[in-house]
Amino acid sequence: MSEADPDAALLARMAQGEEGAVRQFVGAKLPRLLALASRLLRDRAEAEDVAQEVFVRAWRQAGRWRSGQARFDTWLHLVTLNLCRDRLRRRRGVVMADPPEQADTAPLADAALAAQAQARAVAAAVAALPERQREAIVLVHYQELGNIEAAAVLGVSVEALESLLARGRRALRQRFAQEEGADHD
Amino acid sequence: MTEPMSRERFDALAQAYGGIERWPAPERAAGWHLAAADPACARALAEAEALDLRLDAWTVPPPTPAMRQRLVAARRRGWIVRARLWWSAIGVGTVLAGAVAGLGAAVALGPERVGPGLDASVFESAGEEG
């Protein structure tokens, strides 16, 4: 990749032991990586474990990162994705009817309840997609990775990424249409 | 001047990425032109944007301040461990080098030419951290 890595200066400051750079790095990356793990695993505690592990690896690599080959952010996404895949694989070995969801027991207004129900419906629909389509949609729609970065994380061409996205989005549209049809019956 | 975009390409991009602001940057201008000129493209775009909006309903809570602090603290601990290892390596190296040099110097040069070695206080200050 010829484009300069936007994280290069920050990584250099971290490698020199600058604590302000560490805080800035955590502030910038943690919300994104935790969101990625949360959406792939749908379990907050597990997602936090994964995010922590990613940062441990990031601390090890930051000083050795060679800018110009790939973006550090792309590498962080790849590590997060692989750790989530490992956990999902292990989870499949354990009998589990539904992925654990955190139930919020606080009383909510009608609008908030409706929003929560809608969010759960979207989460369930995305979770029901085939693995590669789900990953493509989470990386591109939710993480807002560029097509080249997302394709690099998934190890596919941009054309293959677009195909995964289109199939995933089509399946989601169909599912939502069916759900709306069922609600109106 | 924006290169014209085919209807097929417009559909493929809308189906893959959703709204035009989510498309790869080099294709956006041509997309806006076509959406404004072709009602069928405008409809396809509206469908894609409706799905984007639906997907956006799934939000996840941000990390807690405690988690941020844990990660920063873990990094600090990592530096301290590395500093300890680094100073320990210097210490071991110095002791070994000193022993070898001392033995050679005692035989060949006499005791007043033996080097002074490192200040021991750096080992103590490194050891006291954390």
UniProtKB/TrEMBL annotation, chain A:
CDD domains: Sigma70_r4 (cd06171). Keywords: DNA-binding, Sigma factor, Transcription, Transcription regulation. Gene3D superfamilies: 1.10.1740.10, Winged helix-like DNA-binding domain superfamily/Winged helix DNA-binding domain (1.10.10.10). InterPro entries: RNA_pol_sigma-70-like, RNA_pol_sigma-70_dom, RNA_pol_sigma70_ECF_CS, RNA_pol_sigma70_r2, RNA_pol_sigma70_r4_t2, RNA_pol_sigma_r2, RNA_pol_sigma_r3/r4-like, WH-like_DNA-bd_sf. Transmembrane segments: none annotated. PANTHER family: RNA POLYMERASE ECF-TYPE SIGMA FACTO, RNA POLYMERASE SIGMA FACTOR HI_1459-RELATED. This is RNA polymerase sigma factor. It comes from Novosphingobium pokkalii.
UniProtKB/TrEMBL annotation, chain B:
The chain crosses the membrane at residues 85-109. The keyword Membrane applies. Keywords: Membrane, Transmembrane, Transmembrane helix. This is Uncharacterized protein.
